[in-house]
Amino acid sequence: GRTLGRIAWHLTTTIPDYLAEFGLNIDELENKEKVPTSASDIYRIFKTISAVAAKTLEVQWTDDDLKKVQIAFGRE
Question: How many Å apart are CA 49 and CA 31, to the nearest integer?
């Protein structure tokens, strides 16, 4: 089974992967296979990558983009 730390880390490190499915470009995290042992480290990295994701959305998407039907993960 997965630990709560591993699940939290997975959610954090896959943000760029998920957003790439919708045409956004965010740099992958380095050493994402190494799960931090501290909840505060996971929180800090999650907060940072979430801020980068928000800024990327602001720069790369338009209001018209929100109306587009998108195929992602093999689904429309």
Answer: 14
Cα 51–chain centre separation: 10
pLDDT at 29: 87
Structure letter (DSSP) for residue 27: P
Residue-level pLDDT at 58: 93
**DSSP assignment letter at 64:** G
How many angstroms separate the CA atoms of 22 and 1, rounded?
30
Tokens 């940072």 sit on residue: 48
User: Coil, strand or helix: which one is 47?
Assistant: helix
Residue 75 has pLDDT above 90, yes or no: no
d(CA 45, CA 36): 10
d(CA 20, CA 3): 26
